[in-house]
Amino acid sequence: MSEASSDVPPASAAEAPSGVLTRLSPLVRRLVARNASPFTFTGTCSYIVGEGEVAIVDPGPADETHVAALLAAVAGERVSHIVVTHSHRDHAAAAPMLREKTRAPIVGAHAHAAREGAPPPLRAAHDPAYAPDAALADGERIEGRGFTLETIATPGHAANHLCFALAQEKALFSGDHVIAWSTSIVAPPDGSMADYMASLDKLASRDEAIYWPGHGGPVREPKLRLRALVRHRRRREAAILARLETGAATIPEIVAKAYAGLSPALIGAASLSTLAHLEDLVARGLVASDGAPTLSARYCLA
User: Fold this and answer.
1) CATH topology (fold) of 234-301
2) Which residue, 80, 73, 101, 70, is CA-closest to 149?
3) Which residues, in sequence order, are CB contacts of 148 under 8 Å at separation 6+?
4) How many Å separate Cα 112 from the centre of its chain?
5) pTM greater than 0.85
6) What residue ranges do the domains of the chain occupy?
7) How many other C-beta atoms are found inside a 10 Å radius of the C-beta of residue 140?
């Protein structure tokens, strides 16, 4: 799920067309679900990893048509694992449908634990029925015939977010943590800006050469993209501090200035992203709030 806006040029929608099975590399195929939206771009990318014996990464939304297309794509092959980067509905809701058809275990992100204070839209983002057969920790591996997926814990966009490195191709399935066409939304209380920035730093220390994200086309120069995402967040932070310095005290006032011209449909996402920055700024002692940082709190420079 992307943030409302970005200072990074968007990728072409042609890079990840909905409903099309695409061979991406010797070990990776992609099928994009037909759930296009302002937050999902052309749809959720489901990846088939391996040949003959395969893992499916992020089976997508609870869409029978998409599940049927995935099953058709792996006809004659054995699905050994259903791998989930995080439990948002657009990534995880098809997992039990696929497990029923293939008998493959669901592995990856742990089940979502709803956090106190989460607004209804954010609570609804997670699939309440998601229940993995095995929740994976940082550094654990999924072994398949001819491929290995290494688990990398990357909280931030969601508290249970994971990425998976494909060692044989120096590739990374980056879920919603790093995408090419926009920036990921970080929405408290489930999302954490401090965690998100730390997870970006964590990936920057690795050497994967290409990322296959949960939405849109590939990230072909990961190091450059990671630096761009850090710069984007620091610019957002600076814009928030500038708004506070000129007298803005509430999130609506900050968003009206920092996201000028934003579509009304995206104001909620921008507000949550601003809250994530403010939560981090309060924790670092740069901003003060009248109580705990919330959407309705008042803020000022510390």
Assistant:
1) Arc Repressor Mutant, subunit A (1.10.10)
2) 80
3) 141, 142, 166, 167, 168
4) 14
5) yes
6) 13-229, 234-301
7) 16
Beta bridge partners of 21: 31
CA dihedral for 81, 87, 90, 93, sign (positive or negative): positive
63 near 35, Cβ under 8 Å? yes
Tokens of 159: 């508290």
Q: Which CATH superfamily is domain 13-229 in?
A: Ribonuclease Z/Hydroxyacylglutathione hydrolase-like (3.60.15.10)
Q: Which among 171, 180, 194, 188 has a CA at the least distance from the CA of 57? A: 171
- Local structure of residue 74 (DSSP, 8 states): T
Residuewise pLDDT in 10s, the chain (302 residues): 555 444 444 556 678 889 999 999 999 999 999 999 888 999 999 999 999 999 999 999 999 999 999 999 999 999 999 999 999 999 999 999 999 999 999 999 999 876 555 454 444 588 989 999 999 999 999 999 999 999 999 999 999 999 999 999 999 999 999 999 889 999 998 999 999 999 999 999 999 999 999 999 999 999 999 999 999 999 999 999 999 999 999 999 999 988 878 888 888 888 999 999 999 999 999 999 999 999 999 999 99
Specify whether the CB–CB gap between 164 and 81 falls below 8 A: no
